[in-house]
Design a protein that fits this description.
With 412 residues, the chain is an alpha/beta fold. It contains 10 helices and 12 strands. Bound molecules: adenosine-5'-diphosphate (ADP).
Length: 412
């Protein structure tokens, strides 16, 4: 038999209810042999209920036959009270050998039975088991409380860290805004001087080439700065959309014209499939072309020579609204499914080959890993969505990728 109690600092209170004083006295003596156990006596149900308000019991030993309130009624009342609903009850009675009484006892919520006259050793063993169960329940409660305290502490720490990060992020964005504008001013001055130099050096090819090199570098730098500014505005949710009715077909045809040299150099075909049938939408005439430009430039960058890019569109109803869906499908190297969401995160690059890197053609790209985040920010600012699908990444099989853009069609 296991020794009692598990916790030497705890007193295990047992409620004993019986209308016969001798029985209570006997139980009291018996339970008194167990260390750290205190029996608290009640001669009737009402006194027992009152005692449950004062003490926390680990077990009740209840006589079934009592005047006024019998044991069944008492246990039913105990079960109905939240504080005592879980209190284990052993019924003690001379008539309990009958199966009918056992069932009745279980129905009201008893957990065990003893027939009178009872075997003292068996009663003590049962009491020990219930004390053990009580101790385990208390321990679990204590662990739970400790765990809750820990979770609360960690949550507080995390929210503090989050607040700190948000402050740092804000400081970073503020810095980018200020630094970006500061850098743009001298670049504009350089641009003015290089243009002037170009016309002055018209007849000196060697010097002209150098000036053109400076100008290309300056344009690239300006583009990177502008993109950093876009990203910080998107992060701060202050990207300003100035909407007007626009035709995506017109926008895409214009981008096609601008990129024609790059397409020709790479022997790529760009098909715009019956986009003239699509309705006009409300959108920013500067921002939306930028987003589509990034996607088409990417399709060019990641599609080997001789491939094709197909742009199709349709309208659809979803979530009680009408949407315009544009699909940009290429026959390129594809994207690993694990990267399909990540590619829209800032500075994320899959590390896959960039077929354009060796090309001579000049692209207006997003900068390192910034094109798709900017495109996503622009589409989100138009209450639209953007996502990519691809069977996988394979440089030889060329499974291709499709980028989807959904924009709301606002009825005019
Ligand atoms: P960047 O092209 O400058 O790396 P982006 O944000 O435009 O940055 O794209 C992120 C990454 O997504 C790219 O590095 C590339 O791996 C992948 N990606 C984008 N578009 C395509 C595409 N059409 N086909 C295959 N991979 C693509």
């Amino acid at each position: 038999m296991t020794s009692q109690p598990q916790n030497p600092h705890r007193t295990y209170k047992i409620l004993t209810v019986d209308d016969t004083p001798n029985n209570l006295y006997l139980l009291d003596r018996l339970l008194g042999t167990l260390p750290h156990v205190e029996a608290i006596k009640a001669y009737d149900g009402n006194t027992a209920l009152a005692l449950t308000l004062e003490h926390e019991f680990c077990l009740a030993i209840v006589d079934v036959q009592m005047p006024e309130m019998d044991g069944y009624e008492l246990v039913e009342l105990l079960r109905g009270n939240q504080a005592t609903a879980q209190l284990p009850v052993i019924f003690v009675s001379a008539i309990l050998s009958d199966e009918y009484y056992h069932r009745k006892g279980y129905d009201v919520g008893a957990v065990d039975f003893m027939s009178k006259p009872f075997n003292l050793d068996i009663l003590l063993s049962k009491v020990r088991v219930f004390i053990n169960l009580y101790e385990q329940r208390i321990q679990i409660q204590e662990w739970n409380q400790a765990l809750e305290r820990m979770v609360e502490q960690r949550t507080n720490e995390l929210s503090l860290a989050y607040e700190r990060l948000a402050l740092l992020d804000q400081a970073k964005n503020d810095f980018i805004q200020v630094a970006g504008h500061e850098l743009r001013t001298p670049l504009t001055v350089i641009s003015g001087y290089t243009s002037a130099l170009r016309s002055m050096l018209k007849h000196e090819p060697a010097a002209l080439q150098m000036v053109e090199g400076i100008q290309t570098g300056q344009e690239r730098l300006l583009e990177v700065i502008n993109n950093m500014l876009y990203v910080s505005r998107i992060d701060n949710e202050v990207l300003q959309v100035l909407p007007q009715m626009i035709s995506l077909n017109e926008i895409l045809k214009k981008i096609q014209m601008e990129l024609q040299d790059a397409l020709d150099e790479r022997k790529l075909t760009l098909n715009l499939q019956e986009l003239d049938r699509l309705p006009m939408i409300e959108g920013d005439p500067d921002l939306l072309p930028k987003a589509f430009n990034y996607l088409i430039v990417n399709a060019i960058k990641y599609t080997p020579d001789g491939g094709s890019i197909t742009i199709s569109g349709s309208t659809l109803e979803d979530r009680d609204a009408q949407w315009l869906e544009i699909r940009i499908q290429d026959t390129g190297i594809g994207i690993n499914p694990e990267h399909l969401d990540l590619i829209f995160e800032k500075f994320f690059q899959t590390g896959q080959v960039n077929l354009h890197s060796s090309s001579k053609t000049k692209f207006k790209g997003g900068g390192p890993g910034l094109g798709l985040p900017i495109a996503r920010g622009i589409i989100a600012a138009h209450q639209g969505s953007i996502w990519a699908e691809s069977p996988g990444y394979d440089e030889t099989q060329l499974p291709g990728s499709t980028f989807f853009i959904r924009l709301p069609v606002v009825s005019t």
